Amino acid sequence: MPTSSVRPYPELSIPAIALGTVQGVVMTASFVWIALKLGFGLPGSTVAAIMGFVVLRGVLRRRSIVENNINQTVASGINTASAGVVFTLPALYLLSVNDPSLANIPVWPLATAAVAGSLMGIVLIIPLRKQMVEIERLRFPSGVAVATLLRSPGEGLSQGMLLITAAVLAAGLTIVANLGFVPEEVDLGHMLGLPVWAPVALYVSTANLGAGLLSGRGGLPFLAGGILAYWLVAPAAVMLGWVAAPPGLEADALDGFYAAETYGQMLRPLGIGMLIGGALAGVFAALPAVTGAMKSLQAAAKQAAEQGVSPEEVSPRFVGAGAVVAFVLLFFAAWLATPELGVGTALLVAVVGALWLGLAGIIVAQATGQTDISPLSGLALIAVTLMYFLTGGNVTAAILIGVAVCIATNQCADMMQDLKTGHLVGSVPREQQIAQLILCWVGPFVAIGVLHVLWAAPGDGSPGFGPQSLDCINQTNNCLMAPQADVLRGIIEALRNGDAAIDKYLGGAVIGGALSIFPIGGVAVLVGLAMYLPFSITLAYGIGCLVSMGLERSFGASFIGRKLVPFAAGLIVGEALTALAWNLVVLMKTFSGGA
């Protein structure tokens, strides 16, 4: 007799863990790419659940919803490292270009800190599950959406085919573009004779379009920020003489000069300020969540004392042991990465970092449950700044803790969403928690490995963000700008040099804080990012948002979830994986030629 006669609803199974791991690795690699390009990460639970239907139900003929829930829990848990690494670690790579003292990047200590953050995020959130999910019944919108998908298996197979079809189309276009048969962008402004400092161009990218399709109405602030930056602020800066051209400059060079200077002197510092102001406003807005989360901890402790350990949860002993292991890893990572600081300072860094990590995780878990928005980058930015001053200006130690905090907080948000999904579909929380604990190391290693490959891009037209690609900002789009990490790099350089454009940073921060009063999650961060990126990317992304809105109006919200979401996800995954494979081939050819 088959196993299903004994366990009709298998859950923590080898097929579920294996499929979730493969999907998690693929999504992490893909979403590292898209986060380096656009400056924000993407959730992976929906994609993983759809592909779970294709493989578990369609190929393996397994019909357990809770087993598919383990698959998506593992996959999305691994993928949390993509945003956590991309928002912070590239700053150290970028700083090393002009600072030889940072050239020897301590990869293994950074990977250790990343694993410590991933583990800490999991053990931190386990005691909060019952209070937030069952007692407070927070919404966790993404978790509810995935649960709805899991409970409609009839749609899963067709959605999987849509995702695969879109991925194949994206891969084909990416190969054609890399061979030079398709332009990187369509410059409509040049055709119309418009100046380059007021651009009208469309970036040719299925991943960019797919991200816009997924965002829909929520991505409109991103488009609005680009319009504000490049069609209002930049022309005003030129016409009002805020950016003055040097005497003797040739007329045909004026456009290029104004484009570079309006970006460098106006748009970039304003965008950075808005990112900081918006992120900090999000953190302060979430502070009331700390009180509720502390009550969650007290309630969990009281229940454990009165009733003993619930079989639904991982034992508190394992939670405590995991927290100790995570702290030890964090300490050794800080010590090995910066031995010049000494054991005492490394211990102080680990203690303060762990305390901030815990507070940040509580804030993010509660904020995600209420709004589906987490102030991830803002919390990491605070951690890096705090550690920078605590270590006397040691950049490596500061970014190391920033990596751990960013991954941990993202892990807190993602795992609580997954536990909400599991609660709705009848999963045992312990099964999800065990799956996350045994695989918490996978995502950090994949994300850091992909980042290193992209940093090593040879600069011959292959997509990358390495030193050979740094001159592409606002000139060509076949590069990955790492906007969140580059903001962090700019802030650290300003702290080190004391030459920050304080007025523009402060002005942007005030605007970002003011925008945070709007009832749209993360609006200030999106507008700030749009000021930071080339407008061709922003405009193409915005078109995706408008198309998504039009389709929703014509066919309804169910069409978006059933058809558009898997198709858009396929566009992202197809381009990202193809571009990564292209880079690997180019690097292998370069290596073999050098040998």
Structural write-up:
This protein is an all-alpha fold and 595 residues long. The chain has helices at 14-38, 45-59, 65-86, 90-96, 107-125, 129-135, 141-150, 153-178, 188-192, 206-215, 220-239, 251-286, 288-307, 316-337, 342-371, 376-390, 395-425, 429-438, 442-455, 483-497, 502-515, 523-532, 535-555, 557-594, and strands at residues 185-187, 201-203. It is built from 24 helices and two strands. It starts with 13 loop residues before the first helix and ends with a helix.
Mean pLDDT: 78
The helix/strand class is mainly alpha
Morphology call: globular
Number of helices: 24
- Report helical residue fraction: over 70%
Cα(first) to Cα(last) distance is 57 Å
- Percentage of residues in strands: under 5%
Sequence stretches where pLDDT stays below 50 over 5 or more residues: 1-7, 473-477
Main sheet attributes: strand count, strand direction, barrel closure: 2 strands, antiparallel
Radius of gyration: 24 Å
Order of helices and strands: HHHHHHHHEHEHHHHHHHHHHHHHHH
- Strands of the widest sheet, in order across it, are 1-2
| Strand element count | 2
Quick synopsis:
With 595 residues, the protein is mainly alpha-helical. It has 24 helices and 2 strands. The longest helix is centred in the last third of the chain and has 38 residues, at 557-594.
